[in-house]
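User: Could you go from structure to sequence for me? I need the amino acid at each position, not a summary. Structure tokens:
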């Protein structure tokens, strides 16, 4: 029984080592709001089209089931944005700084991510 447990733990460790990006990724739930009202917990980001201009590279891993603790607002200019994000696609060879799942008005966010602001 003890040997089976050790083999299972070693298998899990090998699985984590073989997928280092998944093991390092910080996954954050965001409630997406894209109107002009900014809440107290608003995280304002500007989407950019060049990864060199970004503060963080972000991979979107899908929609969250619930609301996150932080609201994410999209900006159309850098004036009010706290960070500039570049969205990394699943096919990209760029390593993301973090992975996020989205809740709320996600279709609007995906539309803006498809056409980032210059």
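Assistant: Here is the amino acid at each position, in order:
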């Amino acid at each position: 029984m003890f040997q089976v447990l050790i083999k299972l733990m070693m298998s899990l460790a090998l699985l984590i080592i073989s997928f280092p990006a998944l093991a390092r990724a910080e996954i954050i739930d965001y409630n997406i709001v894209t109107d002009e009202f900014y809440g107290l917990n608003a995280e304002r980001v500007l989407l950019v089209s060049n990864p060199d201009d970004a503060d963080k590279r972000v991979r979107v891993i899908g929609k969250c089931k619930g609301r996150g603790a932080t609201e994410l607002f999209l900006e159309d200019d850098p004036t009010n944005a706290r960070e500039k994000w570049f969205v990394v696609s699943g096919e990209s060879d760029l390593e993301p700084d973090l992975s996020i799942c989205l809740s709320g008005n996600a279709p609007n966010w995906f539309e803006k991510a498809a056409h980032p602001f210059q």
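One structural detail worth keeping in mind: The mean pLDDT is 77.
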